[in-house]
Amino acid sequence: MSADVRSLRIGTRGSELALWQSRRVEELVSRLPGAPPVELVIIRTEGDRITDVPLSRVAGKAFFTKEIEQALAAGEVDLAVHSLKDLATALPYGLEVAAVLEREDPRDALLAPGPVTLDTLPAGARVGTSSLRRRAMLARARRDLELVELRGNVPTRIERMLEGRYDAIVLAAAGVARLGLTAHVVERLATERFLPAVSQGAMAIQT
After folding, report:
1. DSSP track, 3-21
2. Domain coordinates in residue numbering, the chain
3. Whole-prediction pTM value?
4. Where does the pLDDT of residue 61 fall: very low under 50, low under 70, confident under 90, or very high at 90 and above?
5. What pLDDT shows up at residue 60?
6. Does the fold of domain 108-188 match that of domain 8-103+202-206?
7. Cα–Cα distance between 185 and 120 in angstroms, integer?
8. Which CATH number describes the domain made up of 108-188?
């Protein structure tokens, strides 16, 4: 390969999960014949900056993708890697989803410090989630639980649970598995009872 070959610049958030996903794409690219070197370009998004209020109360959309898409449209990166569920339904003009990697476990997972299930959590247990969808289904399944706002990346959320701030939390099973943190999972919630988010567990490559 010529020494002046330009790197393939991948736009990504800086969270541990986002970097895992981007490095996975880097690994797949590196297997291709004549593949260029890959550079990960970390871009901080609005969703990363707003940590003190639920995003459901903030006007706007594409909180975790907008700034990355702007960099892609401006030619500052060559492609972007996202959790597909974070992308808006209507993409910015000129951008497209070029590929979707094989979807992993789409289910939600219940994580807790001890051996419980959703049905055996005691009445009044504090369950953390930042998702309106998950809150609605938790309220339907267990009206006696206390649902508490939970923000932060996956390891931070688990750490807060282990500190005793929550009796249990609900996260995407795929993200927990990608980071090797499944030891904290006590139940993978059946889709018949807990409908996953659209595209949960899938990674998108945007160009």
Report:
1. TTPPPEEEEE-SSHHHHHH
2. 8-103+202-206, 108-188
3. 0.91
4. confident
5. 66
6. yes
7. 15
8. 3.40.190.10
pLDDT one-digit tens code per residue, 22-59 = 999 999 999 999 999 999 999 999 888 877 777 677 75
Cα–Cα distance between 17 and 19 in angstroms, integer? 5
Task: State which amino acid sits at residue 62.
Answer: A
> Which residues lie below 8 Å from residue 8, measured CB to CB, with a gap of 6+?
29, 35, 36, 37, 38, 39, 78, 79
The letter for the amino acid at 195 is: L
The 8 Å CB, 24+ separation contacts for 94-98 are 95/69, 95/206, 95/207, 96/206, 96/207, 97/204, 97/205, 97/206, 98/205, 98/206, 98/207
pLDDT in tens, 78-102: 999 999 999 999 999 999 999 999 9
What CATH architecture does domain 8-103+202-206 belong to? 3-Layer(aba) Sandwich (3.40)
Residue 168's identity, in one-letter code, is A
User: Hey, which residues are catalytic here?
Assistant: 86
Q: Decide if pLDDT at 122 tops 90.
A: yes
Please report which residue ranges of the chain form alpha helices under DSSP H: 16-30, 46-49, 66-73, 132-141, 154-162, 173-178
